[in-house]
Amino acid sequence: MQVYRGMLFHASYAFLHNRSNSFGYGFRAHRVQALLTRHIAYEVDGQVYLTFQVRRYADPLTPLPGGRSEADEYEQTVVLLKLSRQVTSRCGASLQYGHFRNGALGSAGFYRKNVYAFSVDMSL
């Protein structure tokens, strides 16, 4: 789905059925993605990007050392916020924040990461 009315909004949904990933475990997954782009003010553009995926494995995963069983569900979340401005015809700058979460559902076996970035783009 894609809509433009003063801003661009693009969304998609996917259902994945993989009989075997690289470790030999089949899974089914639901993935939702969304992108929102809009001109804000003073030649600054803003973007918001979101990806959310939940994966459920068909077979139990290999037990962890110590005999504990690995989780049978996996979640991935990515959120990006970006502000960018074209300073001159050959130079642009952007500021970006990203939040990433990957791993097993529940309270253990996952990590969170926040990334901040500033970039200057120049063409010669």
Topology:
Layout: E1 2-4, E2 8-18, E3 27-41, E4 44-57, E5 73-86, E6 91-104, E7 110-122
Antiparallel strand pairs: 1-2, 2-3, 3-4, 4-5, 5-6, 6-7
Brief account:
The protein is mainly beta.
Average of per-residue pLDDT values? 82
The major β-sheet equals: 7 strands, antiparallel
- The percentage helix is under 10%
The tally of strands reads 7
Topology order in helix (H) and strand (E) letters: EEEEEEE
What sort of overall outline do the alpha carbons produce when their principal axes are compared?
elongated
Query: Rounded to an integer, what's the Rg over CA atoms?
Result: 19 Å
Beta-sheet strand percentage?
over 45%
Structural class: mainly beta
Structural notes for this entry:
With 124 residues, this protein is mainly beta. 0% of the residues lie in helices and 68% in strands. The chain has no helices and 7 strands. It has strands at residues 2-4, 8-18, 27-41, 44-57, 73-86, 91-104, 110-122. A 7-stranded antiparallel sheet has the order 1-2-3-4-5-6-7, with no helix packed on it. The chain is elongated. The protein starts with a strand and ends with a strand.
Task: Give a quick set of tags describing it.
124 residues; mainly beta; 7-stranded antiparallel beta sheet
